[in-house]
Amino acid sequence: MENKIYFDFVKELLRLNKINNYSSKVIGYKKSKILDESFPIYKVDINKKGSKKFCIVAGIHGDEIAGPYSVLKILENPKFFKKEIHYQIFPILNPSGFVLKRRFNDKGRDLNCLNKKTLKSENYKEIQMFHEEVKNKNFEVFLSMHEDLDISKVYSYIFEKDTKKIYRKLFSNERKWKAKRIYGDKSDGKGLIINVHDHSLEDRFFSMGKAKLSVATETPGKLNLERRINMNLKNLEVLNNYLLGSMFSEQ
Q1: Cα within 13 Å of Cα(222), Cβ side
Q2: Domain ranges of the chain
Q3: Which helix (H) or strand (E) holds 32?
Q4: I need a labelling partner for 79 at 20 to 30 A (CA). Which of 21, 31, 173, 234 fits?
């Protein structure tokens, strides 16, 4: 029965895809012995002819649920998707962690790591499936939606020294972490952790030149789920407008 939470999510994902004629496919199956299940991992493609490429990733850490449910919310609203933008969305990369309601996968591994070791290890099959799908692709924007379950303030990770105006538009009007260090890492004092090279997906996409703009957002897990989803939706709208060039320009 515990596996039902994932398959209920998938059922709703596929329902929305069918209603709105979105394209989706299974990029692979996560086989879990401890859960006695083989979980399909999905990718959703919208507006494949769009010239701007926007990659959205959620559910890397299984207990960070606002990202996956934010994906369902945008899929409910076709007006969100702009024809000029090709959206490539990975709603849940860690299905076993999602079922187990924990950060790590069923092998006890943190999947937010992309390097030579994880691309060879049997413990990181989910990352290998994801990498196989994106290894020959480049994006204008790469967004990884995360949560910090222990706080009530927001912050983001970026991977360049130049803090573009667009980064500061994320989490607009939300209570940001203002410390000069966040978990020991240097911050700008306005909620941005800068240039932390940790082999996370968002780090690797930027450092390998696969994304012009790469960011990981952290919603505060101490706030209710609806509010966290709304924060993600606002961030997604900001990045949409950035890609369309209608509101912001790079500095």
Answers
A1: 6
A2: 4-244
A3: strand 23-32
A4: 173
Nearest CA to 94 among 168, 148, 22, 146? 146
Question: Model confidence over 200-225: pLDDT tens digits?
Answer: 999 999 999 999 999 999 999 999 99
Question: What values do phi and psi take at 188, rounded to 5?
Answer: -85, 0
Cα 131 to chain centroid, rounded: 14
> What phi and psi, each to the nearest 5 degrees, are found at residue 110?
-80, 115
Helical (H) or strand (E) element with 69: helix 66-75
Is pTM beyond 0.70 here? Answer: yes
- The answer to whether residue 251 scores a pLDDT higher than 80 is no
Q: In Å, how far from its chain's centre is CA 152?
A: 20
Query: In which residue are the tokens 């407008």 written?
Result: 241
Tell me what the mean pLDDT of segment 63-67 comes to. 98
- Which amino acid does the sequence have at 84? E
What rounded mean pLDDT belongs to the chain?
Answer: 94
